[in-house]
Amino acid sequence: MQACLVSRSLLLSLIVLSSITAHGDGVNSAHCNCGAQAPGDIEIGFIWPIHYKVNNIQDRIRPELFTCSFFDLESFMTSLGAIYEIEAINAAGLLPGVRLGYLMCDTCSHASKALQSVEQMLSIHHSPTATCGYIDFRPKVKMFLGALHSEVAVTVSRLLNVYMVPLMSSASSSPKLSDKIHYPVFLRTVPSDKHQMKAIAKLMNYYGWNWVGIVYEDGEYGRGAFQSFLDDAADSNVCLAYQEMLPHSENPSYSLQYIQRVSQQIISSSAQVVLLILRPELVEALFKEMIRTHTTRTWISSEAWSQSSLVSKMEGINMVGDILGLTFISHKSKAFDNYLTNLIATPGGNNSFIEEYKNLRFNCTPECFSVKPPPHCPPPQLLKIKSPNACNMEDPHTQNDAYLVNYLDTSSALASREAVWALAYALQKLLKCNSSMCSGELNFPPWKLLEELKKVKFTFENNTLFFDENGDFVSGYDLIWWEVDGNHRSFQKIGKYAVLDKQVRLTVQNVTWISTGNTTAPQSRCSKRCPPGSIKKILNVSCCYTCNPCHDGTYADKWDLVDCKKCPNGTWSLKGWNHCEPRWESYLKWSDPYPITLTTAASFGILLLIVILIIFLVHRDSPPMKRAEVRLSCVMIVGLAVSFASVICFMGKPTVYLCCARHLMYAMGFTLCVSCILVKAFRFFLAFRPFGQMTNRQLHKLYNPPVIVTIITALQVIICLLWMIFDSPYVEGSPPSPQSMKKILQCREGATYIGYGIMLGYIGLLALIGFLLAFKSRKVPHEFSETGYIIFSMLMYLFVWVCFIPVYITNHEEGTAVQASAILVSTYGIIFCHFLPKCYEALRKIKIETMETIVERSLSLTSDSTTDMFDPQMTISTQRTDSFSNLSTTTILGMSGYSSKDNAAASGLVLTPVPREGGYFPFFSNKKGPKLTKRCRSISL
Q1: pTM above 0.70, yes or no
Q2: What is the pLDDT of residues 755-775, one digit of tens each?
Q3: What is the domain count for the chain?
Q4: Where does residue 435 rank: exposed (0-12), middle (13-18), buried (19+ CB within 10 A)?
Q5: Element containing residue 795 per DSSP (H, E)
Q6: Residue 527 in contact with residue 505, Cβ under 8 Å?
């Protein structure tokens, strides 16, 4: 009850205030506050800002009438759009038997003035009775259209909430008005600014602008749009370089201070894109300062001024830079343009606003163009409306032309026209109209109309329109480009933004930007964009960062990514790559230069061995070949050929079979060759080393070349067999490092390398033994000996493979090539040491000394060197140091190419056992001559 009394008291106060305001000057309220009206069965209240300034509002101390100035052509034109559609609906008979009327009052873009107008229209004919409820409240005005500014819409909606009278706006876009708890009576034929700000943020993201400034006005519209933009900017990766608020003050000097401060912020900032959420008059003031300071930027307009003729026609507008923005979806109507060209008041009504426009356009006022115009003259910007033929016309009120159509974008009146049709379709449902009549009650309470408005859905000019749950139209925006048109700007639609799919779609791609002079869009970024292959390292602000390349194995395939992506399985990327790809396989390809060289060298080696074999067979009876042991040499040639063939298995893409084949072939072939060399070294060792007679006989029993070669090779077979069973080679594909795209395919000699190590170690041991045996026999006369060649070839082998091990371990990538090269070098070393000298001797038929000559020279040297033949100690010493002591006749003769029998006969030498103190000592005897004394130094043959 107490709440009811408070409400009643408040309402009575409002009614008394309205009555005083209405009748204080003794004139009719409608005449005092409303400038246009047309009678009808159902009246609509228009609250439209025909002027955009209330005079001396700061000096107001009495509740007197508001006086306004600065005629707003665009608002006037949009109000005519609503009037035009009312007349069209009445003429079309959409509501049979029912005529729509209207009452239009000027809000002057001021909330207090709008409240006064609403009160006047609600109190026409009778004042509302103050009660606790208004379910049956039936005013003459059933609905209000207009309230183009959000601040006015918010204020008026709070008053109309009491009576539940609908308020429909065609321009108020503040997100705050979507709150149906606080503004249940508010509807609008445009989307909420939350969609507009989302569209602007996406537009900035589309052009890559992430460092922008924003200037908004201090009001419901500016603050609401700014807060909405903050959320959308974060989602679109747009950062604010600065944010400035401009108050809408009536004090020019106060406003100028703010304008200059904001201008200085714009000039000092590095942001090249500025979003302006302002009314046209504030934009005009700001642009004047920009022109004065020669400041150029890219300006993003909100819908409040995106098609403002006040701004587009101002002097020097081309100096401020590029301008683009969003406006509500609109399109021209030829019928409406014709209506504006032949402008008259509604029949039966009046419109003082049309009269005021015609006075501005056609009234002859030459004194207003003087240096000091009289007070009754309009401001300079409105003088531009004046027709050049104004002073040649008799009655301005009867004149018409196409100025409004040519000067303004008449498509912007679409939203106000749609609002009237939404009302008409709601009334059609409410009044139960058919094709011939409307049977519903005309004097209905306004809240019933509100119910029908929320449910209305209709088609207007090929567009299906309806209100969502928040009372907002679900439509979209046009993207407007301000094109240079002489000294002014014209508007070009270059794209759209649909609220439902939330995507910016450009229909015109290549516009010429003033900032760049071509079709390349200007840039406005805190940091340069990070190209694919790098990511952003955020500094203090998300849009300010450094670009770091992605690490190996990761990639960034888009611009300005925050995190690198991992390469999928089987692919890889290097540092700074923008994609991943499979590693390319690296192995000894047949077509590469180095493998061609290795293959050629191996093939040449095999060919060389074939030639050597032929030479050995052809000259097998020559002394050099006999000394070289043709049978052992043929076995060596076979082993070397297998070793050369193993090199060819190193070429091409490796497989498990090739891996096993290359190692087995080398192991068997080279072991066979080294075992033959070992046999030769052992033979020289036995022939030319002094041993006791018993030891000499035992060692000679061990000298069996076929058995030695077979046993040595069989041991290698066993080693390789165990290796293949327990730790066999396999193919491994691995990168040499994370910084490489190569995938090295090569044979691994087993998981532990034990088998491979034992195999190489075994060959190395044989080579070392052969080297030691040859080294011990190095004093053998070179006529019989190959010890020098054996020493050199085994040293070369050991040197090559000792060097191979560290290179193979440290340079894993080149391990295959190094291993093949080592095989070639060691194999060629044996050819050059063991075969080529013999081939040279055989082919050149070099004269070889006979055994008689060698033995006689040896005996002569021995006799000359004997100092005391009869000294037993000297005899013993000579026996131990002479190279020919205990010499095997068979061995020497075999080495020299003669048989024992032939040599004995030729030389006349025979073996005669001569007993001696302390042991058995052989000596030479001559059947034909006298017997040599036993004290002479002896040589065993």
Answers
A1: no
A2: 888 988 898 898 888 888 888
A3: 5
A4: exposed
A5: helix 787-810
A6: no
